[in-house]
Amino acid sequence: MPWIYLLIAGVLEIVWAYTMKQSHGFSRLMPSVITIVAMVASFGLLAVAMRTIPLGTAYTIWTGIGAVGAFLVGIAFLGEPVNAARIIAAILIVSGLILMKLSSA
Question: Torsion angle of alpha carbons 27, 30, 33, 38, nearest 10°?
């Protein structure tokens, strides 16, 4: 169950990153509210997951899900550029996440 909490926490990190961008510096109410709610929920689920998953593993995977997810959302919904260097960087992050998970007991 802790891994499911960690996965959901990572997805919520993507949500709050996207809605923070949509809030235009917290000047728009609904995206700002969604950002704060998603942040609190993400941190809460991360904390619960850390009860059994080691700190280094949990935090690395949480931030990695958020980083790669935000990268993909930026491309898909915000028209951010796609180039070889950015794709290679995302692949390296995902490779590190897989290795971190496999190295955890």
Answer: -120
* Integer Cα distance of 19 and 88 in angstroms: 26
Measured in whole angstroms, the distance separating CA 45 from the mean position of its chain's CA atoms is 12
**What is the pTM (predicted TM-score) of this model?**
0.88
Question: What totals of helices (H) and strands (E) does the chain contain, helices first?
Answer: 4, 0
The 3-state DSSP composition of the chain as helix, strand, coil percent (nearest 5) reads 80, 0, 20
The answer to whether the Cα torsion of 69, 72, 76, 79 is positive or negative is positive
What would the pLDDT profile of 23-43 be if each residue is shown by its tens digit?
999 999 999 999 999 999 999
